[in-house]
Write a structure and sequence with these properties.
alpha/beta, 8 helices, elongated, 5-stranded parallel sheet, 15 strands, 2 domains
Length: 260
């Protein structure tokens, strides 16, 4: 038990640069307090002492502002930063080394029994205000951006942003090289990085690249036609004045519109 507490404290010190020492973490981090109370409540829930387990979780909610249902399964080195407003549903399953920020909801979309809440793989980061809703899996090493709403399965290593959530980056599964790079650049707080692509900019860049490819092919086609003796010079449009435009508009106007 004490080994798990030391492990939880160490995870806070590793992921929060504001944490200065063990005593400060033990006395001033509500995410850690909520986790420790859940570690008492969950075994009671599993032993069918459900009322007492709910009493502990209710006290934890009142004391920390974090609501963790005692039925939720939580792995090792779980870290809730700031924590206020975090809600974790009954059938949620959380792997090792997962990080949640304030305002996160791991919720359900159905009133039926059974599995209703998400499963988070190892190393998942869920940014502030994000909602993960439904009985699907968020793959290992994935990131849910701040204020995103994830409602379907997230592949390992993917980054999800927006409402509804969409994947903007997907990297290969986490390996030794990726882990070394992550340690080099620092912890990816709030599931957002400086190099994360803007979806609109990405779409415009993709369109420009497509236009460039089409232009290159058109130029190659013109060269091939020129080799066959066909002149593909620039086509010049006749210059039109205001009177010409008026005549064209008159010709294009339907008769019933003219009559009215």
């Amino acid at each position: 038990m004490f080994e798990r507490i030391r492990e939880d404290v160490r995870s806070v010190l590793d992921r929060d640069p504001a944490a200065r020492n063990t005593f400060e973490v033990l006395t001033n981090y509500p995410g850690l307090h909520a986790l420790l109370l859940h570690r008492f409540a969950h075994p009671l829930w599993c032993r069918d002492w459900k009322w007492l387990a709910r009493v502990i979780s209710t006290f934890s909610r009142w004391f920390t502002g974090i609501e963790i249902h005692p039925g939720a399964t939580i792995g090792r080195r779980f870290f809730i930063d700031h924590g206020m407003g975090v809600v974790i549903g009954e059938t949620s399953e959380i792997g090792d080394d997962v990080t949640l920020y304030q305002g996160v909801t791991l919720g359900g979309t159905s009133l039926d029994g059974g599995k209703r809440h998400p499963t988070l793989g190892n190393g998942v980061v869920v940014g502030a205000g994000a909602k993960v809703l439904g009985p699907f899996t968020v793959g290992e090493g994935a990131k849910i951006g701040s204020n995103a709403v994830a409602v379907k399965e997230v592949p390992p290593g993917a980054t999800v942003v927006g409402v509804p959530g969409r994947i903007v980056r997907r990297q290969s599964p986490v390996g030794e090289e990726h882990q070394a790079m992550a340690e080099k650049i620092g912890f990816d707080a709030y599931a957002i990085t400086k190099e994360m692509p803007d979806p609109t900019v990405h779409a415009i860049n993709a369109m420009l690249e497509h236009i460039q490819v089409v232009d290159s092919r058109f130029e190659a086609l013109c060269c091939a036609l020129k080799d066959k003796g066909i002149d593909c010079g620039d086509i010049s449009l006749p210059e039109l004045n205001a009177e010409d435009f008026a005549v064209m508009a008159e010709e294009d106007t339907p008769d019933n519109v003219k009559a009215s």
